[in-house]
Amino acid sequence: MNRSAWFYMGILLALSACAQEDPLVLKPIDDTFLTPDVSGRPGGRGDRDEFQIYGGADKKQFRALLKFDVSEVKTPPTQALLRIYAWNVGSPKKTETIRCHPVLRDWNEKWASWDLCQQEDQWTNLGGDFDPVALSGNIVSGTMGGEKGYWLDFDVTAQVQLWVTKRKPNYGFALLFDPNCTAEMRFRSKEGNQPPKLELAWAAKLDRGQGMVPGSKLQPYGDPVKMEPVLPPGGLNMVREGEKFSQAIKARGGAKPYKYAATGLPDGVTMAEDGTLAGALDKEGRFPISVTCTGADGKRATQRYELVVQKGGGAAGVDLAGGAEKTAKTGAAPGAKEPAKTKAGKVDDE
Asked: 47, 110, 184, 235: which has the highest count of C-beta atoms within 10 A?
């Protein structure tokens, strides 16, 4: 075989190795459900063989969360369907709609509850942070009551395309009933015998099940979600003239991961993207700076601080937004209690 033939054979083998299954079926990496009665502690429902979606006259809701890993998918699919298997349907009094929304904040099945999303992180909005605009829905009717098996399909093509092209972070889907509904459904989870699946297709055609409703036909769920990060008020940590210092400024809320930036920094001081302010100042003075935190969804918050450097003793920060100057000795406003410190001697802003 000549060189040219070997070359083309190599190309064919490479293309074959990179070929994507069509259709491609993915199983969840996390799934759970949230209820108002479980808050202030981990949900701990990720290992159950079912999840529930519920709406009742008591206005309570059970909401399901599912997450799929699409990081190995290189090309946006032309079609993407989320399929979930209902094994038990509480008889709805009227036709109801289950809605599918993109989640806006990262979570994991071990910790997710009505107010927690991860071990050291909370939802900005109780019951989960999700886009109020639904991707699609599916109809549940009174004839579906009982322990019967149904696959419900949701068109999530547009959202998966955003994930694959990395234009939006992938935090999965939220499934919930319309407001004021009165119905209950139980679905098999990833631990069950009919786990949820995300089916992706390119040239192949996926058959949609009955009852699917386009997202454009559904009204937004509630008010717009508040997802802006919040930078802590208060001063910066104490430093000494001529000595190196380091302080991490930590935001809350919004969509992680964050990226931090600062303007007005004096020579010798830098801010890393993770929010760490570090350096050394060889002269005393007051240095106003402006810190901006940008969430993964592009929303941002800005806070002004002032770094005060005093000779020989130490320094305190002044929060220009709050206006409360702090003493050089403790970093606290006159008459206020000294801030708690971590083992490293840094003020604990948590």
From this structure: 235
State the pLDDT at residue 16: 40
Per-residue pLDDT, 58: 64
Q: How far is CA 34 from the centre of its chain?
A: 15
Distance CA 180, CA 61 (A): 9
Domain 20-217 maps to which CATH number in 3.40.109, 3.40.50, 3.30.70, 2.60.120? 2.60.120
Rounded CA-CA distance 250/347 in Å is 12
Length of the chain measured in residues: 350
Cα 30 to Cα 32: distance, rounded to the nearest angstrom: 7
* 132 in Cβ contact with 220 (< 8 Å): yes
Q: Assess contact for 122 and 216: CB atoms under 8 A.
A: no
Residue pair 305/291 in contact (Cβ under 8 Å)? The answer is yes
What is the structure's pLDDT at 84?
A: 97
Tokens 């919004």 locate to 254
Any idea which residue has 């909370």 for tokens? Answer: 122
- The residue written with tokens 């206005």 in the block is 59
What's the average pLDDT block by block, 10 residues per block, for the chain (350 residues)?
53 48 96 91 90 81 96 96 93 84 94 91 90 95 77 97 95 92 91 96 92 94 83 81 90 86 93 94 89 90 88 49 34 38 37
Q: Which CATH superfamily hosts domain 229-318?
A: Immunoglobulins (2.60.40.10)
CB atoms within 10 A of CB 74: 9
